[in-house]
Amino acid sequence: MFSTYEETLNWVHSRLRLGIKPGLQRMEWMMEKLGHPERRIKSVHIGGTNGKGSTVTFLRSILQEAGYSVGTFTSPYFEQFNERISLNGVPIKDEEIVRLANDIYPLAEELEKTELGGPTEFEIITAMSFQYFGHVQPADIVLFEVGLGGRYDSTNIIYPVLSIISSIGLDHTAILGDTYEKIAFEKAGIIKPGINVITGVKQQEALAVIQEKAFEMKAPVYQLGNEFTIAGHKSLPRGEFFNLKTVFQEFSGLETGMAGKHQTENASLAVMAAELLNNYYSFLIEDIHIKAGLKNAYWPGRFEIISENPLVVIDGAHNEEGIAALSEELAARFHEKRKNLVFAALSDKKLDKMIGNLDSVADKIAFTEFNFPRAAAAEDLYEISSHNNKHFNKDWEQLLENELKETEKDTILVVTGSLYFLSEAKPYLLQLIGNETY
């Protein structure tokens, strides 16, 4: 059992050695032992390749504006581990992490001795979130973000009031499959009988899979572009402006506090969810709550401008679709500026297409690496690039310091790639900028 936060985290992270073990049996076993806390929680389940975290953030912000207490379970964390389990946007306390781990530890030890085997790191954290919101600190509603896939994801033992599938992209193909249809099949695994499904999926072949699953489950589908549509979009200096028409009403003059055209889509998913909660589940959510919620929503590391002078943007574009959205946004929003890019990534991504896309928008591109088990080597990333103005530096701190020195008035520095890398890079960049030591 644990008495300190540090030893608790060491134990949780030690479960990484078990890797990814898709399946729900271990979760169901632990929930049975805990008295099924997951059944005590009113929840929304959010899956998809990209946009899950932003959609969670927009919906949480709307619900908070309406006066509700909102729990969230998200991954990965950006600034501190505790934020994975948060209440009203505030990460739970260190002592609560210790308490929850002590609830789960004896179960993990017992489970280890069974034919099911010990729980993974993600299963441990998911179980902690169920225990927290089910038995320790109930909330009016909890938003659960899927970790990987959907069908066999640890979160998929809940029976939510709404399911959201934000997008489909070719990520984690070794586990989820190498086509849009196969990945959509895994994501559609979160669809429950009779439960409304909201989706922003665009590929027709993926959408067909989701619609087929929803039909099988008698689950109504609300599709972006059909039951709710975006119009009048334009970019703002620090966000986006758009109008939205849903099956319930029309919203004009919506603004997001998060930049990027794709954020209007994530925001629309959240608005549609709020509309369904309002109309079918007795949540009193008014237009003013929706407008304020979208405008005030903040999610770190998503096209986040961390400095105006020098102009520095960080963006956790960690897969092919994320990189495409970033490249499109850079070309549209900063077409007049020279673009210097820094990229670090995990080795299990489709790096050739990601780097090829970055090459096409960058005036200069630099590659680096960071201390993480699956991190790609800087030199390997460099070799993949075909840019004529490229370099690499294994020391990411030195690289960022050098790049800041070269960021002049006509230049934007963009640091992108793995969220694990950005979580380390952001505080270091802010320190350099604040101290003007570059």
UniProtKB/TrEMBL annotation:
It comes from Cytobacillus oceanisediminis. Pfam families: Mur_ligase_C, Mur_ligase_M. Residues 46-274 form the Mur ligase central domain. One of its GO terms (biological process) is folic acid biosynthetic process. The keyword DNA-binding does not apply. Keywords: ATP-binding, Folate biosynthesis, Ligase, Magnesium, Metal-binding, Nucleotide-binding. Belongs to the folylpolyglutamate synthase family. GO terms for molecular function: ATP binding; dihydrofolate synthase activity; metal ion binding; tetrahydrofolylpolyglutamate synthase activity. Its cofactor is Mg(2+). Residues 301-418 form the Mur ligase C-terminal domain. Transmembrane segments: none annotated. This is Dihydrofolate synthase/folylpolyglutamate synthase.
